[in-house]
Design goal:
313 residues; Rossmann fold; 2 domains; eight-stranded mixed beta sheet; seven-stranded antiparallel beta sheet; 11 helices; 15 strands; globular
Length: 313
């Protein structure tokens, strides 16, 4: 039996009418697709890096919207309910932050905010869904690990949205835990949003211990307390609480590998969180991804302690 590809897995998360159309898209387009976008009253759209494709009812992809299938209120409502597991109320903590995670795919939301004193309590009347396709690519991290191994310090992985940060982290976790480039290491993955582990099968994280749904600050501390990891991996460092938890992990002897939003090295160094992370002593290397047009590919590798930069081919 042929394994279902990542695009088809993602498409099946949507309502039956939309998923049946998306499954007809040519395989050549599926393999490069990064996002599926639904907007109320607008054409069904698939993004392939910098290329925007409109989807017809036949599954044909075109470059202009005239013949494309239009997303209706029912398409968005039913897809949203399916993505929430038909329990919208139970997903409110995610929804108020502008996303839900389903099948390992993060889905961005647009709608009407219910806010009090500048704090969003809920999002209603959903008008847009942006489904980011979760992918697992074995060997994606090999060029990076060839520079990092043998592992003696932590790594910050920086990239713009849709540049492949989660894909690289997933392959790093698998590779280190099964001993692909070194003796196997005890690796703990803090998967706060269910993206690192949710859509790609148990084998794609190798022999990792995985804490799903834990806030990074709590997950890192629990991993150190009870799982004795040599390496802790987490996605998208956000606020200063995460930075403090990382300091705890580093001081306990674990190596930290974490991603952070930044489109270039200069943008990375300009972020407040970066300064806090460097002060923890947890990171001495940074890798910069090219961007959405070359997802999962490293453009630069920086030694933060020696202030050296290596441009990757």
């Amino acid at each position: 039996m042929e394994l279902e590809n990542d695009f088809d897995k993602a498409a099946r998360l949507l309502c039956p009418e939309l998923s049946s159309v998306l499954l007809k898209i040519p395989d050549s387009k599926k393999s490069s697709a990064q996002e599926i976008r639904l907007r109320l009253g607008k054409p069904l759209t698939v993004f392939c890096g910098s290329l925007m494709l409109y989807v017809c009812r036949s599954g044909e992809t075109v470059y202009s919207p005239e013949r494309a299938m239009v997303c209706t209120k029912n398409h968005i409502f039913e897809s949203f309910r399916r993505l929430c597991g038909y329990s919208v109320y139970s997903r409110q903590n995610e929804i108020k932050n502008g996303f839900v995670t389903s099948g390992g795919c993060r889905v961005g939301l647009c709608g009407t905010a219910d806010a009090t004193d500048g704090i969003i309590k809920a999002i209603t009347d959903i008008t847009s869904l942006n489904l980011r396709i979760a992918r697992s690519i074995r060997g994606a991290a090999k060029p990076l690990l060839s520079k990092l191994m043998p592992m003696k310090s932590g790594l910050m992985l920086a990239g713009a949205p849709s540049s492949g940060k989660t894909t690289i982290l997933r392959d790093i976790a698998r590779s280190l835990s099964v001993g692909e480039y070194s003796p196997p290491l005890k690796v703990c993955v803090i998967d706060e949003r269910g993206e690192l582990s949710g859509n790609c099968g148990a084998d794609e994280l190798g022999m990792c211990d995985v804490l799903i749904g834990y806030p990074k600050s709590e997950g890192i501390i629990q991993a150190i307390r009870s799982l004795s990891p040599q390496v802790v991996i987490c996605d998208e460092i956000g606020d200063l609480r995460d930075c403090r938890a990382i300091a705890t992990g580093a001081n306990a002897g674990a190596y930290l590998i974490a991603s952070i939003h930044a489109g270039s090295f200069s943008q990375l160094m300009a972020r407040e969180q970066t300064g806090e992370l460097l002060r923890t002593g947890a990171f001495s290397h940074a890798a910069i991804l090219y961007g959405a047009d070359r997802p999962g590919m490293i453009s630069e590798y920086h030694s933060l302690q020696q202030k050296k930069t290596y441009v990757c081919a």
